[in-house]
Structure formats: structure tokens, C-alpha cells
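Lecture 7, part B: from sequences to assemblies.

Below are the input chains for today's worked example.
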Amino acid sequence: MSQKLSTPKGTRDFFSLELKKRNFLLNVLRDSFESFNFQEIQTPSIENLSTLINKYGDEEDSLMFKILSSGEKIKKADINSFKDGNLHGFANSLSDKALRYDLTVPLSRFVKQNLNEITFPFKRFQTQLVWRADRPQKGRFREFLQCDVDIIGEKNCLNEVECIKIYDYVFEKLGLPKLILRINNREVLEGISRIMNIENLSEISSTLDKSDKIGIDQVKGELVKKGINSESIDKLLFFLNIDGSNQYKIDKVREEFSINKISTDSIDLIEKIIDTCNQFELKNIELKFDLSLARGLGYYTGTIVEVSAPKEFSIGSIGGGGRYDNLVQENNPKLSGFGISFGFDRIFLILEELNLFPNLLDSSKSFLFLNFGNDKISNFINSINKLREDGIVCEIYPSDIKIKKQLDYANKKQIDFVVIIGEDELKKDIFKVKDMSKGDESTYSQINSLVEKIKEIS
Amino acid sequence: MSQKLSTPKGTRDFFSLELKKRNFLLNVLRDSFESFNFQEIQTPSIENLSTLINKYGDEEDSLMFKILSSGEKIKKADINSFKDGNLHGFANSLSDKALRYDLTVPLSRFVKQNLNEITFPFKRFQTQLVWRADRPQKGRFREFLQCDVDIIGEKNCLNEVECIKIYDYVFEKLGLPKLILRINNREVLEGISRIMNIENLSEISSTLDKSDKIGIDQVKGELVKKGINSESIDKLLFFLNIDGSNQYKIDKVREEFSINKISTDSIDLIEKIIDTCNQFELKNIELKFDLSLARGLGYYTGTIVEVSAPKEFSIGSIGGGGRYDNLVQENNPKLSGFGISFGFDRIFLILEELNLFPNLLDSSKSFLFLNFGNDKISNFINSINKLREDGIVCEIYPSDIKIKKQLDYANKKQIDFVVIIGEDELKKDIFKVKDMSKGDESTYSQINSLVEKIKEIS
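Predicted structure of the full complex, as C-alpha cells:
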């Protein structure tokens, strides 16, 4: 019984008041994306596993919610795998679909599938739910809303700048304090790993991603554990310890790369992005070139960005994104992608705690018509029709229970005005309107002037 | 590869233009629900199987999309069931969650779980996706949007009337032709099955539901096949053949029920609902008491309603609902429910075919700033900022490719105006605005008056 009465782990119900706030935030995001002339698309909640698998990384693949094959298809269950303890293989034989894990991989599928109908550069936004069987934490859920903007087309640093500008625009609209956007480039990290003489960036990237939480010392410890030799670690720490302005860091990394005969294109790109952003006069974002930013997802190939929550909130990032060259078409420079995501729930949490939601989320006044018996309703039922046609929020209590109970209902539901037309009022051809917040009651003559009067009040 | 490039069966991608139409329809529905002072809730896409199972009926249960248990949980697989060919039992051992099948059962879980926070009568609306592993058909998908309003509280026929009035209100707003709403009551059908001397209403309900498609003769044939004796069938046909006005049918059924000593409460209720609806002056709905209406879902206990699509569309119903007494709490007359659902996709289809979407779904003008090289952008980049702050839709082409190609992009994306500030314009301190629909080009002096001028145009 108790299990019956709960939502699954990491999922939530939303009440009306919270939804008004969520809709406010969602509308700010959507309106902003539209101001930048991004076009909305939607994709299904369910994708073929073949679309999703091997795009994000092994850990992410294991966190997908898979759909159990139905009917006869379940006969394909690979019982031998089960017996051999190969649960992964067993699971794969039972499912060929999964819930969306993010919005980027479905976008790449959408673009590939509709190449001829799309105008490039394709600027799209998408605000839909995604599902991850992650461990729930503060601000992290198993079902959550992602709000993404992406530009698919030729690589061009103006796309990065435009997306960074959207962060700035949205955060300013929401009244957030100035936020730090960390920027790096996967190719810069590749350069560093070459200098470190390690084979694969992925050996260090997960450790790097934690570095702002765990600190340099622990980074060192983790890398030693991973079997990376101390000479390599020292080279990495050299880079992580470069301190100073963005320009100083850029110059220093460029110098090191040149010495080691590594292409400086990626450094030049970061410089160009930062310079162009400065022309755009960012108001709410401070750019910070950060060599420790790695970002987990497997598909990023170039620029990566991440916006941290204000320091007082220990909820990690509230947005991030990057460039993915090969998600739409391998090695096709005309169809590279760059996109960013807004962490809806975490931004919501910050707005809530900083008290940044507008007081008046709902400016329309609501009216409850008391019910003195179904026989009396016919006297004003058409006035209710007319008011609703004008978009005025009104309702009639569904039964003629005690008036006190009807007023209780109005109070609890925070209804603004109660309209009283009982036997006495009908006889005298008057009606009363009670202001529920002030407690005042006004009397008006002529029931046929009801619509007009209530329009004035509302 | 080809599987990679498709969405799963019965699911869809949506492009921007279609989404604008969908959002238009969704907003009409949501605004209407709010005018009647229903309050929005949202529930998770995933529910515990224990919440969903045994509420709808066996066939419906088998059409749920179940979530495959992950990690260690999959070890619970009931291999013996698999070997015994008990696929149902095998599937159940692999899953304890499923995607939402409708919005009513999750609502009942929500109410049970939050009894103390809810003000009754609880009038809620909900517009969320549901998933059914049904056979896709025209207007029927495996993932689709449901738009529901429900009232949970004491049984009161005004709740039925209010929901019928919402249908009327919405269909009028959408400009649909007058639609027929069929109304019946499960208890009336129970009464008829008692007169027929059959044990269970479910023996005839699925056949009844098809009767408007297959006709009376085939109904007879199907019932014979089901082993129902001809005397019983004749009694049923007697009822189905009652023809005339609603009032005539009501009187006739009441008479028969009285003769057979069956309670006429349910007939009286139908009469009362129809009478009160008439007071409400329905404009777009014609009520029709229809003894052949049964509605499939297992949880209905009283009034049932269904709105048919206009005759020229053979896509079945575009909405339906009913009263469910025992979904929230068994035998608790204070917590009965009545609710209706709008078939979003089918209504969309009708609006589309009858050309009822407004022409101007998007009244805001859009501007593309041509790109003559990143060095020139800094001269007007801040004007773009200012325009966007005023909600004006504008963008800058991300690279300085040939102007012809940039204009192509503007054309394909149906951008209204192109702003031209190249080398020549910069020298002369002028800018040009090209009206893309007319082809006109206007020249304006002073680049610093850009914002002001464009605001005038937009």
C-alpha cells in the first residue's frame, strides 16, 4: 500500500503554485530563445536504442531507462547471458528502445533524418523531459526538464558567442547575480595529454572535472592511483597552476604548445571567442578560461563551457554545453554542432532561494458564485458563460452545502471574490460581491448588470 | 543504419511550424481550463506498476510500456516462467515501473497521496504525454498528448455539467462545427444487463462500443458468437432500437426499468444533467442520450460521455470521459471523480483539415543582420542586444559567406527583414533594410538610430 502511494524514486508531482513558477521560468527561456530566432522542435520521449547507445560513454549508457520489449518480442530473451552472469547482454536482449537521455543525441538523429527539409545553419531550441537512472540528489532528479539551444552548421565561433550571449540574456532577465562561465576546449586538453604522454584524454578527464570540488592535491592523488607517472602529473599540474587573467593563461598555453610543436588553433579559438564576447558586452556572465574543465559526455570535440551556480549554492553547474563535430555526420565540417543546456531545476532552486520569482505570477482575479440551490442557478448561469468568454476566471460551487463551507473552499483556493445571489438577493434584484482578501462586501442593484460590474472589478 | 534514422513506431518528431499550431491549440485548452478555475498539476511520466495495474482492464494492462529493471534488480528475472511459456509472468519479474497510460489513474494516486494538502472539490487540469503500445492508426499514436480536466469530490451532477460546458466552450473557441456529445450511464447499462439476465456488463460493453461502426445487425452477430442467448439479445436490441428525442428515450427506459423493478436513479441523473446543460445554453454541443455508449476503461461507474468527430472524419471520438466512484477511495461518496479528456491529436487533425488555425500564428517580425566580416560586426552588435531586450526577434548570420547565400537562408527561414551594414554603409554612416516579402529596400541615415528605426518597422 505504501509503495502504491508514492512516485518512483527521483520523480516528482507538481502542484499548481509550483507549476506557475515553473511556467514563468520556462517562458523566460522560450521567449529568449525565440528572440535569438531559434526554432522549436520536439522529438519523441522514446528513441531506438541504436540511436542512443555509444554516444555518451559506458557509464551513461548504463543509466538509461530501457523499455521492456512487449508481446512476442520478449521471447528473444538471452537466457544464456543471464546464466553466465552477463546481465548487460541479458538486458540488451530484452529491449530495443530507451527513454531520451539528453536532447542533443535526438537532435542529431532528427537532423540526419531530415537533412533535406532543414535550412542550415539550423538553430533549434527544445524544452523537453529527459530521464537518467542517476542517484537523486539536491537539484538532481531522474526525470527532469532540459532546455537546449543548438546550432548545427559550419564551425564558426560566432555560434559559440551567440550561445554564451543567450546565457547572459536569460540570467539577466531572471535577475540572477553575475555568474562565472568556464570555457575550455577538448583539443586543448588533447594537447596537454600529448605533452603528458598519455594515450587517452579520458584517463584524466573525469578527475579533472572534479578538480574544483576536490582541489589540486586530491587530483594528484587520484591520478597516481590511476597509474599515471609523476612526470606526466607534474606536466598537468604545471598547466592547472597557470594563474592570471584569461589573456595571460591563453598566452602561456600557446607558448607551451608551440614549444611542444602542438597546434595552437584551439587556443586561438578560445581567444577569439572571448574577444568577440567582450564586444557583445556581457552583463551577467564573467568568462573564465579554465584548463580543468573537461565535461563528461563523450561526444564533445571542441569548445566546452559550463556555468557554475553562485558560490553559496553547492549544486554544481546550472548549465553547460560544447561543440560536437561528429554527432551528425563524421568528419563533415559543414555539419558540426554547438549547443548549450539550461539546468532547469537547479536554476529554479536558485530563483526560489534568492526570492527572484515575481510576486504576481497570476494577475487575473477569480470569482466563486455561491450555490443556493440548483433552482436558483438558472438566474445567472448565462452571466458566468459571458464572463468566461471574456477570459474571466469564474466557477460555481457544485452543490448547495452550507455557505460557510463554500466560503472555506474560496479561502483555501485563494479565490479573490465571492458572488452572492441567494433567495433574498433574487427577490430584491440585487447581488453582493465579497472581497475575500479584505472581507468587504458590496451590494449592487440589477442582476442583469452582473457581467458589466464584474468586468469592472476584475 | 536505416533503423538508426527513424523514430520508434507510433512516435513523431515535430517541426517548428507544426509546434506553433500545437501550441496554439494547447493554449486554447489551457486558457479555457483556467477560465473555469481548474488548477494545473503534473505527475511523473513513470509510475510504479502497482499504481497502474488492474485499473483499466487486461488488454490495457498489456499495452503499457514497461521500464526494464536496471542493475542488480534484473537478477530477479523469473526464468522458470520464461521456460514455461508464461511470458506475462516473466515480463512482470523484469519490471516494477511503467510509462503513464492515462492521466486519470495518476491523478487518483496524486489525490490519495496528498489528501491533506488538497482542497475539495478538487478541480484539476493536466496536459501531459501518455504512452500506449497500441497499433498506430490515423490520429492514433503510441506517444500522445492528453488534456484532461477532472473534479474530485462529492458526486454532484453540476460537475458533469461543468465538464460538458468546457467541451462546448473549447469547441466554440476553436470554431469547430456543432458536435454530438453522446451521454450514457454505466448503471443504466448494468440495469439493461440485469434485464438481459447476463452476469457481467463487460460481456456486452466492447460490442456495444462498436455498434455505431458495425451497425445493429453485426452487434447481434457478435453477441451470438459470444454465446449470449437470443432472448437476452432481443432485450438488448429493444433498448438499442428506442428512437426519438432524449426525453422520449429517458421516459421509455425509465418505464422499462420500473416494470423490471430496477432503480431509475441513473436515468433520473441523465435527465437532470441534460436539463441543466440546456440552462447553460450549449452552443457547440448537441447532447444525445445513447444507450449504445459503453466506453472501454474499467474504472468508470456512472455517467459516461463521448464526443464524436464530425461525420466526414472517420477517426472515432475526439474526447470522452466519465464518473469513477472508486478510483480514489473505494465506496467513499465524498471522493468520487468525474473527468473528461480532449483527444489533442485528433482535434489538431480536424482543425488542420477544416483550415481553422489562425493565419497569423506568429505576429512578431524577424530580422537578419547580414555578416560582412566579423571586424564589421562590432559596429552594431549592441543594437542587436537592445533589440532583443525589447523582445524583437533578430539574429546575425554566423559567417561572412556570399551575401546571396545569406539571403537564401533568410528566404528559407521566412525572415521578414534583412539589415545591411557593409563596408559601403559604414563609410556613409547609413544602413539598409530589405523587406523580404516585398523585395523593397529602404535606406536610413545614421547607424546609431538603428534601434529606433527597427522598432518602428517591427
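Note for the exam: Chain B has a mean pLDDT of 93. Keep this in mind when comparing with the next example.
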